[in-house]
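Suppose you are handed only two things: the residues of a chain and a line of SMILES describing flavin-adenine dinucleotide. What would the bound structure be? This form records exactly that question and the answer produced for it, so the two can be stored side by side and reused later without any lookup.

QUESTION INPUTS
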Amino acid sequence: MEGVDYLADERKKAQFDVDEMKIVWAGSRHAFEVSDRISKLVANDPGFSKEERTMLPRKELFKNTLRKAAYAWKLIIDLHLSEEEAEKLRCFIDEPAFIDAHWVLTSCLTLIFAYAKLLLWAQRNNRKGGCPWPTRCKFGCYAQTELGHGSNVRGLETTATFDPQTDEFVIHSPTLTSSKWWPGGLGKVSTHAVVYARLITDGKDHGINAFIIQLRSLEDHKPLPGITIGDIGTKFGNGAYNTVDNGVLRFDHVRIPRDQMLMSVSQVTKVGKYVQFDVPRQLLYVPMVDVRQTIVADASTALSRAVCIATRYSAVRRQFGSQNGGQEIQVIDYKTQQSRLFPLLASAYAFRFVGEWLKRLYTDVTQRLQAKDFSTVPEVHACTAGLKSLTTTATADGIEECRKLCGGHGYLCSSGLPELFAIYVPACTYEGDNIVLLLQVARYLMKTVSQLGSRKKPVGTIAYMGKLEHLMQCRFDVEQAKDWLKPSVILEAFEARAARMSVACAQNISKFDNPEEGFAELAADLVEAALAHCQLIVVSKFIEKLQQDIPGKGVKQQLEVLCGIYALFLLHKHQGDFLGTGYITSKQASVANEQLRALYSQLRPNAISLVDAFNYTDHFLGSILGRYDGNVYPKLYEAAWKDPLNESDVPDGFHEYIRPLLKQQLLQTARL
Ligand SMILES: CCCCCCCCCCCCCCCCCCCCCCC/C=C/C(=O)SCCNC(=O)CCNC(=O)[C@H](O)C(C)(C)COP(=O)(O)OP(=O)(O)OC[C@H]1O[C@@H](n2cnc3c(N)ncnc32)[C@H](O)[C@@H]1OP(=O)(O)O
Ligand SMILES: Cc1cc2nc3c(=O)[nH]c(=O)nc-3n(C[C@H](O)[C@H](O)[C@H](O)COP(=O)(O)OP(=O)(O)OC[C@H]3O[C@@H](n4cnc5c(N)ncnc54)[C@H](O)[C@@H]3O)c2cc1C
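ANSWER OUTPUT
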């Protein structure tokens, strides 16, 4: 039946003001209004339909994405959308595209690909004078990774050899493994690329630098002489990331003018002299830091989507327990379902708040960089690398868990979950493999521990190391379940665990003659110590959020429940760490678990409203199981008939392949 809200009873159970929670989730009233308006604009525009995406062949799928991107650009211009609105548009269109990499570059390298922002600016300021955009039509991509080298950036092979005779660099791919491989937007669209290559002057190798290189003609879009480009092939999942043209690129002695080197950390003069500026070389890696913080901010969106689908469906779905012909039990009422689902709901909120905080940290560091203050670069690198790793791993695993929480129907494309997983899971690899990034955090922690005796005081997210003496000795000294709700108790538990794990690693490394050998040997333990540190950051930022003034009936109380679930779930999952480092006893761990179960029961009546607070349209969710009205079964039934396989009763191939077999079987039966 259309128009009936099958989840209405669930919504009536809410003990808090959902509209106020929507504002907390969005970050501000203004952010909520922008999100709400743009998500409805996209949902109501058939130009952004995604219904058939998982059924389209690759070429059609890709062309359709190009159409959507062009249409989106037109809307941005016609409606004079601000940058904030354009970003929301990208989010709610919900289709990975060449434009993502381009936009990231635009924000990192404004000076180079300034035209995208110029476009918006021109629309606002220069309406009479016409827009400069068509004459500046370029698209950029980020060409760093090679076929043989991804994580090890220092190992890249592409060369940029300076020729002082012509004042040019000669860009060359000397081996097959030096072919650029993976850049999004490269395969079929980009006209330009930021290419990372080894700089060579006068026969000397100066390591990796970045260069802007035109790849395709602006007239006919063909590759320029000496350049070979293509798409690297179909990727995991139906639809999914196949909307993006991840590409391969080779250079055969391609010449570019000297001024196309990005001379931010070093310079090559006209006579070929290499000059290193007095700035950290790591500035070359700033684009990665920038994208990593965006990925952290995006993680909560992907996870909350999956959680919204699984929570609504868990309230609709009933199994077992009917008596005298009554209704069966809603699967959301099974404690096992709650213990798998509610920590993911809590994680979505936790990642939202840590993402907001990381954005502020990143903004602060970019302002400092402009003032030539590089002191916080290591901290922001460790935070972006570690949180990117933690949030994307938890989100990818969480989406898959949500699919399982939806039983068999979760495996259908119409549940939205298989495609969401396929689109999301590469986030564990791109912008730095998650293990490689945690090892970066571990290096930072080991450095911090080794400097503790010095005058350099730990600040920011490692400030807790400053009270190491206390954290190494303290013991959890309370016994009641409700003690686990005190923020100070939770914080100390996570600090003590993180500090003790780092110190244990540092002590074990010191047993080796060569610290690098020790680091390599203990890498698995170091990754766990890094994860403990990152979990502490997420927990502490959630607690900090709760210290703010949060209006709205019951809103703060719900957030306290979610925060408790997030922290105590981690404590339960990583009990070995907390017990092994001696901060708590096994009795205290079991009391914490008792408290966790109590929190699940408190959350239960609010579950549907907590996912409603994400304010997602049915278009954005793209899931029959997650429909707002809970009208799942008729819609699943209806959707099945739309599958191309159901266009005819007798399938293509029947006469060639099924009929002969049937005949053979009939004959065999007749012979018997
Ligand atoms: C159809 C729809 C249309 C819509 C249209 C609408 C249009 C509107 C547009 C709207 C807006 C859109 C918004 C877009 C948002 C996009 C969101 C996301 C999109 C995601 C796209 C994904 C694309 C993916 C890209 C990539 O993957 S790029 C490649 C990334 N590669 C890596 O990450 C490699 C990983 N490896 C490394 O980072 C390094 O090599 C290393 C960290 C492993 C270093 O190793 P090594 O030990 O060798 O170290 P070095 O010697 O190099 O360095 C030593 C010291 O430097 C420190 N260090 C290292 N890295 C950094 C760093 N990044 N910053 C600072 N410091 C760093 C080390 O720690 C060492 O320090 P020490 O000496 O003190 O120890
Ligand atoms: C969808 C997608 C989009 C991408 N977009 C771009 C793009 O736009 N531009 C671009 O330049 N690149 C892009 N990439 C490439 C991406 O950045 C790399 O794939 C990524 O950095 C990982 O590197 P790798 O593939 O070399 O993995 P590898 O480093 O080969 O990893 C393989 C395995 O080895 C392990 N490993 C590697 N090194 C270590 C170590 N030191 N210690 C312990 N374990 C280790 C890893 O954990 C992993 O398990 C993209 C990739 C994907 C999947």
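WHAT STANDS OUT: Residues 65, 68-69, 72, 86-87, 89-90, 93, 95, 97, 99-101, 103-104, 142, 144-145, 151, 153-154, 184, 282, 285, 288-289, 291, 294-295, 298, 377-378, 381, 430-432, 436, 440, 443 surround LY3KDABY (ligand 1) (CB under 6 Å). The two ends are 52 Å apart (CA to CA).
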